[in-house]
Amino acid sequence: MSETHELADLLQGLKERSGRSYTALASRTGLSRSSVHRYCQGLTVPASFGTVERIARVCGAGPGELDRLYGAWARAEARAREAEAGAGADAEAGAAGEPDAEAGAAGEPDAEPDVVRPPAAQDATRAAVRTRAAVRRGRRAFPLPPHRWRTLLLAVVVAVSVVSVVTFDGRPDPGGKGGGGTASGGTVGEGKGSGSGTVDRSSGQRIDGPYWALAPKPLDREYFGITMNTDTGLMPDFDVGGVRLWESETRWAQVEPQRGKFDWKVLERSVRGAERKRLPILFTFGATPGWAAPGGPRTPYPDDSRATPPDNLADWDRFVEAVATRYRSRIGAYELWDSVGATTHYLGSMTTLAKMVRRAARIIKRADPDAKLACPSFGKLWEPEGRARLEKFVRTGAYGYCDAAALKLHPRRADGPPEDIIEVAEKVQDMFRENSLGHQVWNTGPGAEIDDGARLSRRRANDYAVRFYLVGLYLRKLNVERMYFYSWGSRAVPLVVQPVGGPPTEAGRRIGRLHGWLADRPISSCGKGSGVGLPDGVFECVFLRGKGREPDTAGPWMAIRWTQRGQAHGKLDKGAERLRRMDGGVKRVRAGERVEYGETPVLVEYRA
C-alpha cells in the first residue's frame, strides 16, 4: 500500500532526524510505544490527523512538513477506506437488518464527528467514519474474544521480559538467575481483574509472568494526586504529589458570576496555598454560569450553574483565556470538563464538547505552551451506555488536542474494594485500543453518579486509601499515569483522609507514608499470584530502591505486596532484609522466612 508507506516514510524520517527513540516519542506524545512504532513502520494508519501531528511536532516538524504529512495521511486514510469497504462487503451482507450499536449512543443524533478538524480535513474525516463502520461490521463477522487479545499481549510481554533487565516475575536480576519467591499455604478471595498467570481457555495453557514488566522508570511524584474539597486554601498535612481543584468552589459560575466580571479570590487563595506547599495544580473546568446558558438545567451546586454548554461558545473562549493567561506557569494542567456522563454535570452533545476541547486547547497552548491538557473526564464507565458515550467522543478526534484522557475509574460501589477498578479500566482500554487511542490516563476520582453516603470501617478506610494508588500502579500497562484521590477536606465522603481544620486521619497518614516510600523510585513491574512466584491472590509491584533518571538495575530493590481479601502466607526470597508496615513499623527479615500478606500492604526491601 504505497500511500501508507508514504506516510510511514515521512514519520520515520522525522523520528530519525529528531534522534528520539520510540519510547521517548511515546512519553512525549501520550501514545503507547507500540502505536508510535506501528505508525512509523506503516503497519496501521492513525484514525485522526491529530495523532500524526502530535508525533510530528515532538520531532520538530515545520508548517511545510505538516502540510505534506496531512496530504499523505488523507491519501492513506482514503486507501484504507477502500480496502476495508471491500473486505467488509460480505460481512455487511450477512448482517443485513442488524442495527448499528453505535448509532444514537447517549441519546444523541448521529452527527458527523468532523467538528474538531481543520475544514480541509472534513472529507477525509467522513471517510474515516465510514472506514470504522466497515471495521465494526467485519468485527461482527470475525470476532476475537477480548481475553484472547489480553493473553496474546501478556505472552509478548513475558517473552520480552526474559531477555530484559528483569526476570520472568519482573524483579531485578543482576545475577541473571531469576528470583521468584516460594509460596505456601493461604487462599484469598479473588477479584475480577486479570491475574498474572493467564489461562488460554481454549487449550488450558497457563502463561506465568507479571501483569506488566518494563525497563525501570521513576514514578512521577504527581502520580499521587488528591482532589480538594475546600475554599480555604489549606492543603494536606501529609505528603501528596499534586492537587486537583474542583470541589474547591472554583467552578466557572463562581469565578465569573457575571459576563466579563471575574471574582478571583477563592481560586487565587487555592493556587497560593498549593504554591506554598509546592504542589502542582490540575484545574478543572465545568459548571456553566446561568447567564451563559439561562435555559439549561441547574447543577446540584448551590451557585447558579448549569449542566449544559454555554449558548455562545465565545463566552467559553473568553473564560478559558482569562484563566490560562492569569495563571500561566502557575497552573500546570487543565481538565476540560468534569464527570461527563452524569446528567447533573453535562447535558450536551459530544460534537459540542469536542468543539469546546478544540477551542480551549488552542487558547491554552497559545497562553501557556507548557501546560498539559486532559480531555473531559467521563463517568458511568461500568455501564455499556457510558462507554458508548466515551467512544462517541473518541471518534470526534478531540483526543488529538489533549495530552491525557481523564476518566472516572472507581469500584462498582462506594464501599467496594479498589481492585474493582482493574475490571472497568480493562473494559475502557479495550475500547481505546479498538480506536487506536494510546493516551495517558488520569484517574480523577469517582464519577458524580456513585453514592457517597456509604461508610467504611477504620480498618478498611486505612487499607483502601493506599490500595487506591497501588491499583493504579498495577494498571500502568494500561497507561495510567496519575491518580487523584477524592477528596481532601471533606467529612461527607466514605473515606475521610483529613477534615478541614483537623489533623490527618490514619488513612491520610498512610497515603503520605506510601508517597514517601515510592515517589521518584523506578518501578519495573506489577503482577499477581503464582505468575510472580507468590501465593494466589497476592498482588505485587516491584521498585528499585535508588532514585534518579538512570536507575541501577543491579542495585537493591523492593516489592510492595497486598491482597484484596483475606490472608496468604509465603516465604521470602533471596536478599530479603527488611519489612516495612503501613503503621510505620519496621522489622528485620531474612531469606526463607515465612511472612503473612493481607489486605494491609507491606513493603519488603531486598539487598542488591
Automatic annotation (TrEMBL):
<dbReference type="InterPro" id="IPR017853">
    <property type="entry name" value="GH"/>
</dbReference>
<dbReference type="InterPro" id="IPR051923">
    <property type="entry name" value="Glycosyl_Hydrolase_39"/>
</dbReference>
<feature type="compositionally biased region" description="Low complexity">
    <location>
        <begin position="85"/>
        <end position="108"/>
    </location>
</feature>
<feature type="region of interest" description="Disordered">
    <location>
        <begin position="84"/>
        <end position="132"/>
    </location>
</feature>
<dbReference type="Pfam" id="PF13560">
    <property type="entry name" value="HTH_31"/>
</dbReference>
<protein>
    <recommendedName>
        <fullName>HTH cro/C1-type domain-containing protein</fullName>
    </recommendedName>
</protein>
<feature type="compositionally biased region" description="Low complexity">
    <location>
        <begin position="117"/>
        <end position="132"/>
    </location>
</feature>
<feature type="domain" description="HTH cro/C1-type">
    <location>
        <begin position="10"/>
        <end position="66"/>
    </location>
</feature>
<feature type="region of interest" description="Disordered">
    <location>
        <begin position="168"/>
        <end position="210"/>
    </location>
</feature>
<dbReference type="GO" id="GO:0003677">
    <property type="term" value="F:DNA binding"/>
</dbReference>
<dbReference type="InterPro" id="IPR010982">
    <property type="entry name" value="Lambda_DNA-bd_dom_sf"/>
</dbReference>
<feature type="compositionally biased region" description="Gly residues">
    <location>
        <begin position="173"/>
        <end position="196"/>
    </location>
</feature>
<dbReference type="InterPro" id="IPR001387">
    <property type="entry name" value="Cro/C1-type_HTH"/>
</dbReference>
<dbReference type="GO" id="GO:0004553">
    <property type="term" value="F:hydrolase activity, hydrolyzing O-glycosyl compounds"/>
</dbReference>
